[in-house]
Amino acid sequence: MFWRVRRDQNFLIAITHHLPFSHYDFLKIGHFWTDVSLKDIAYELDINSGLPIPNIFPSSLHPVLLMDDKSFSLLGRFFSRSDFFVYDGKIESEHLNIVACKTAISGFDYDRSEYQRYDLAPPKDRIKKINKLRLRPNFATSYDLFRLSDEWALEFELIASDAFKSEYEAGRLTGLRFVAAC
Asked: I want to staple 179 with a disulfide (CB 3.0 to 4.6 A). Which of 4, 47, 76, 100 is the partner?
């Protein structure tokens, strides 16, 4: 079974201001990251919310995960393949592991999913918002974390395998929730 990875709204979020790049840049391949230093990637906690601090902060634009050292150590085997960019960052004064998923696979089920399309000028046929995401029947892959490649809006959806979800739950980590995608 596969799961749509979402932010658990019972936990604090990480915010950033004035990044010299967008979250989508995390997914670009090339020399972009060779010159990025720790000081360039900094997040702050939204302490005014009164919510507890999680181990993993999903980015506002998936599929970038901001992880503390405990969660990265526990889940690191999932990020050891060449399918991810992993960067150092910081949140307040604490070290932060920034993990961006490169792998994108076609698998979105247009018939069983619930979504809205743009109804104005181009891209009028593209997906605007996904309410319920479903993968095609009999969908299979060896990847434990991946993005969907079917449309631009789907590239920001992070999908996890049962193995990833089980390891996350066994480690009693916080910050994510999983919604069935099959």
From this structure: 4
